[in-house]
Amino acid sequence: MSGPEIQERLLFVSSWFCPFAQRTWLALNEKRADYEYYELSLKDPATNQWYQLGEKPKWFLNLNPLGKVPVLAYKEGGKTHSVYESLICNEFLEEHLPKEQTLLPEHPVAKAHDRIIIDSFSSKFVPLFYRILLRQDAESQKEAADGMLAELRQLEQKIHPVGPFFQGQQMTLVDCALLPWFLRMYILKHYRDFSIPEDCPNLARWTKDMEQLPAAKETQKAPDGNGTYEEQLLFHYQRYADATAKSTSARDFK
Ligand SMILES: N[C@@H](CCC(=O)N[C@@H](CS)C(=O)NCC(=O)O)C(=O)O
Predict the structure, then answer these.
(1) Do 93 and 122 sit in the same domain of this protein?
(2) Less Cβ around it within 10 Å: N or C end of the chain?
(3) If you average pLDDT over residues 132-146, what whole number do you get?
(4) Which of 52, 76, 101 is the last residue of a domain?
(5) What is the pLDDT of residues 214-237, one digit of tens each?
(6) Does residue 249 surpass a pLDDT of 90?
(7) Which residue, judged by its Cα, is nearest atom 12 of ligand 1?
(8) 10 Å Cβ neighbour count for 209?
(9) Is 2 a domain residue?
(10) Ligand 1: which residue has its CA nearest to atom 10?
(11) CA-CA distance, 32 to 34, in Å (whole number)?
């Protein structure tokens, strides 16, 4: 398989269901970037099984040897450049694209604080999201859910009380990095009856506001005619909820 042609225009390699890719998709949209979307199939449609690293297309592994989406690629002076890992992609976009739609505050300390929120969320909250689904006995599900409640309560202390964005009037890389998992809260509700607790009203308000954001709506498209985006995403996560998923996230966050 030859794959997409890499040109000067930015290429965004994604998979419709991937929250990590959605982080970068949000940043691309909010920064009004000119890019081409490429949907990469991470599963074999015949078996519905995830491809192993060696089974992924060579052109893709050349862009990202880790074999994961998202990937950004473009040509400059005849040379192909690629960037991967969602948070690094987002920092790259912030540096590479015009600054009119900046997604980081100006002051170095404020920038550093945003990165601390993102880093802590990625190392603590994200694994807990998968663990609540992947763990199969009530006791260890509760342990993961309690961990997530503690994380939510800490975030509630940090979020702007009015919004609409996490930090107030301006969307930042914090919104891009956190939002995909908040947009998936209904999945935890469905499979594990877990929701944002009542003592986190600002997080609940932010999630609702962000669901309506045009840059976010753009990233929530059903891949085919087999149900709404939400229904198809719910179905995708069934494999996590019954612990049969063979994706890298299922392995990484067990
Ligand atoms: N740390 C990576 C994680 C990306 C990731 O896990 N992407 C998943 C899809 S949601 C993937 O491409 N998995 C490949 C596989 O499971 O084979 C990032 O932040 O970009």
Answers:
(1) no
(2) N
(3) 96
(4) 101
(5) 999 999 999 998 999 999 999 999
(6) no
(7) 68
(8) 13
(9) no
(10) 18
(11) 7
Ligand 1 neighbourhood includes 25 CB (under 6 angstroms): no
Range of the domain at 68: 10-101
- Cα distances from 26 to residues 30, 45, 99, 176, in angstroms, run 6, 27, 16, 6
Which amino acid, one-letter code, is at 161? P
Does residue 122 sit in the same domain as residue 91?
no
pLDDT score for 99: 81
18 CB near ligand 1 (under 6 Å): yes
Give the torsion through C-alpha atoms of 251, 4, 23, 31, to 10 deg: 170
Average the pLDDT over 33-55 and give the result: 92
The average pLDDT across 106-116 equals 97
3-state secondary structure the chain: CCCCCCCCCEEEEECCCCHHHHHHHHHHHHCCCCEEEEECCCEECCCCEECCHHHCCHHHHHHCCCCCCCEEEEEECCEEEEEECHHHHHHHHHHHCCHHHCCCCCCHHHHHHHHHHHHHHHHHHHHHHHHHHHCCCHHHHHHHHHHHHHHHHHHHHHCCCCCCECCECCCCHHHHHHHHHHCCHHHHHHHHCCCCCCCCHHHHHHHHHHHCCHHHHCCCCCCCCCCCHHHHHHHHCHHHHCCCCCCHHHHHCC
**CB of 64 shorter than 6 A to ligand 1:** no
